[in-house]
Amino acid sequence: KLCSGDHPTIAALLTDLGVVYKDLGKAKEGLKYLQQAIAMQRRLYRGNHSNIATSLAIIGFSYKDLGDTKKGLDYLHKSLDMLRKLHTDNHPAIAELLNSIGFAYK
Length: 106
Known about the structure:
Elements: H1 8-23, H2 27-44, H3 50-65, H4 69-86, H5 92-104
Helix pairs in contact: 1-2, 2-3, 3-4, 4-5
């Protein structure tokens, strides 16, 4: 065993699995992995962290893919709030997420 318990590599792999399932059109299955990933990330990175913000956004996109735009936007806005605490308003990650939120309203 290379990693056990809460470990950044395991959290990253759980996120990757969630993204792969989402991209395969199986967002509901992907959400299971994404929820595990974000729970682990919250234990690993107390407070605001870019990995948590990324996972929040991916969860938001997954809910949007499942047709729950309201819940998806809620997660996207949580991600945006966290990014704004981590970066200045002109940071590329904030601009990219704002663009994605705009498309989610379509």
